[in-house]
Amino acid sequence: MNSDFVYDLCVVGSGPAGIILTLEYSRLNPDKTILLVEYGTRKMHGRNSLDDSIRIKDDRNHHDPYECTNKGFGGTSATWGGRCVMYDEIDFLPRDIIGKECTWGMELFNDVKKYLSLSSEYFECGSSVFNLHDLDNIEVGPIAEGFVEGDVTDSTIERWSMPTRFRERYLADVKAAGNIKLMEGFEFRDCNPPDLAGLVGTARLRKVETNEAIEIKSKKFVLAAGTQETTRILLRNSHLFKNLGKTPPALGHYYQGHVSGKIASVKFKGRSSETDYGFLRDADRTYVRRRFQFTCQLLKAENLLNTAIWLDNPLYYDPAHKSGAMSFMYLAMITPYLGKKLAPPAIAHSITKGKVTDVRNHFWNILKGIPGSILTPLSIFYRRYMLTRKLPGVFLFSPENIYALHFHAEQIPAYGNQMYLDKDNETLIIDYSLSPPDIKSVIRAHEVLDEWLQKCGCGKLEYWFPKEDLFDAINRMSKDGIHQSGTTRIAGSSEDGVVNNDLKLWGTSNVYICSSSVFPTSSQANPTFLLGAFAARLANHISQKSA
Questions:
Q1: How many CA atoms lie within 13 A of 220 on its CB side?
Q2: How far is residue 227's CA from residue 241's CA, in Å, rounded to a whole number?
Q3: Which among 256, 305, 250, 407 has a CA at the least distance from the CA of 98?
Q4: How crowded is residue 339: how many other Cβ atoms within 10 Å of its Cβ?
Q5: Pairwise CA distance, residues 254 & 496, whole Å
Q6: Does an H or E element contain 189, and which?
Q7: How far apart are CA 328 and CA 317, in angstroms?
Q8: Of 252, 262, 264, which is closest to residue 228 (Cα–Cα)?
Q9: What per-residue confidence (pLDDT) applies to 347?
Q10: Burial of 234 from C-beta contacts in 10 A (0-12 / 13-18 / 19+)
């Protein structure tokens, strides 16, 4: 490698954000040279030094590092379920429950929305429309007989990707681009301090297999290595903030995920045949699905965190559901070799809850439900694993018109939820937990939904736990670490955040962050889709700066 060669752009990390950024910048700047650095390789299996050097202080609410991310080109898209969800206006507005920690705003939100269609193209999730009322090809009725939209809505949708595996989908595009050099199996270690103008010109990489050190030069750097590794790089390279005189106080702090689980079912009063419990298909056959959400006015009035609630299946591991098909799928998921093939660990855990229970009654459910116990899972297996656009999930019809409710709620950006380096300046320690307001907001959101359903005469909630046990139940069941955000957040100054609205690192003039770590609030949505829009926006921004 020519140590004197200067790239126009160096992107660190080849997950969806890094790939979208790289390909968009390449398209906009065919005469510019791009270096894409990736730690993982196709041959890398089993354990790796990065995940081995992460320590979770309390794993009650946080998955193991190996369940949260993937190394290699394509990143976590290798095990991504494919759900594409949009953030809401409320996420960018000041409100009492978030306080001063909402450090982005509506101007940024409106600007990012210009790039939603590009994100949709890369994720292959159809259009960038996220409300049923805005789709011409789907006749919109209520989610269940008698439901009327008001404080609670049922028309916001999630869209589903293929799911698109970015390695298989985009590796050939990267290799075919004459101006992109991909270096797999290299760890970004450190870089020179910025000069007086804020410019960083040189960085050092480590070849993972041999520990060989390699120096590279670039006019611009973008860290797109995911929340954990991007944060670790910045913590290890605190000299990047030399011109500020100190490290931004927010770096590593305000780490967020989502509060998620099931504490209740809904029993609808109307005809079960009229309940919209499963997937709809958009004009291009993209799968979409509706969810209950709450208006901005309601969330502010009730001082609630943004929450989505959708219809789901009962707990698979409990044979009391009496569904032969569910028992068949549960037994398949707990079968050691087969279960690992059917779903990645975090998704499998959401189904099995790590429990092997009452196998005898599960077999009894299967026997009583034959042939449907076998035929239904086989049909689902074909649509979920054999087609190009795969069935995103399994939602089974309830003749009793009773469905479990899955909640997915944002967290308060808490300073004490953090990532920091141990004394060796290498080990990344994650200190993460749920706060009482996080959990209380989930409980109140269910109460508001129940009140609205009963006001409409549509149905009511049936809780799985006594009211006094709901808090502890949520604290036990909720586990994240997959939807990571907050540790390098956007803000208007280095006192409040780590990057500005253009994702430029405070104290530098040519170092950027493209990771959901820049999101100051976590919304009800997983961050993947919106991050794609930020990546496309950043490619456009640095292209203009290069002109």
A1: 27
A2: 19
A3: 305
A4: 17
A5: 11
A6: strand 186-191
A7: 10
A8: 252
A9: 63
A10: buried
120's CB contacts (< 8 A; 6+ apart) are 84, 126, 127, 128, 159, 529
Q: Which residues contact 145 (CB under 8 A, 6 or more apart)?
A: 268, 269, 270, 271, 274, 275, 458
Q: CB-based contacts of 451: which residues, under 8 Å, 6+ apart?
A: none
The secondary structure of the chain in percent helix, strand, coil, rounded to multiples of 5, reads 35, 20, 45
Residue type, 448: V
Predicted TM-score (pTM) of this structure: 0.93
- Give the tens place of pLDDT for each residue, 81-140: 999 999 999 999 999 999 999 999 999 999 999 999 999 999 999 999 999 999 988 888
Please report which confidence band the pLDDT of residue 343 belongs to, taking 50, 70 and 90 as the band edges.
Answer: low
Q: Which range is least confidently modeled, 115-129, 148-162, 360-374, 500-514?
A: 360-374
Q: Which residue has the higher pLDDT, 157 or 363?
A: 157
- pLDDT tens, position by position, 433-459: 999 999 999 999 999 999 999 999 999
Query: In degrees rounded to 5, what are phi and psi of residue 112?
Result: -65, -30
Report pLDDT for 379: 83
**H/E element holding 36?**
strand 34-38
Band of the pLDDT at 425, cuts 50, 70, 90?
Answer: very high
Question: Residue 391 pairs with which residues in a beta bridge?
Answer: none
% of the chain residues with pLDDT over 90: 81
Q: What is the DSSP string of 374-417?
A: HHHHHHHHHHHHTSSS---------TT-EEEEEEEEE----TTS
- Selection from 452, 353, 363 nearest residue 149 by Cα: 452
Beta carbons of 270 and 458 less than 8 angstroms apart: yes
**pLDDT for position 348:** 67
Residues near 125 by beta carbon (within 8 Å), at least 6 away in sequence: 82, 84, 159, 160, 161, 286, 529
Let me know how long the chain is: 547
Predicted confidence (pLDDT) per residue in 390-417, tens digit: 999 889 889 899 999 999 999 999 999 9
Distance of alpha carbon 135 from the chain centroid: 25
DSSP state of 194: P
Mean pLDDT over the full length of the chain:
94
CB atoms within 10 A of CB 336: 6
Query: How far, in Å, CA of 223 to CA of 116, rounded?
Result: 21
Quick check: 353 pLDDT over 80? no
- C-alpha span between 121 and 284 (Å, rounded): 13
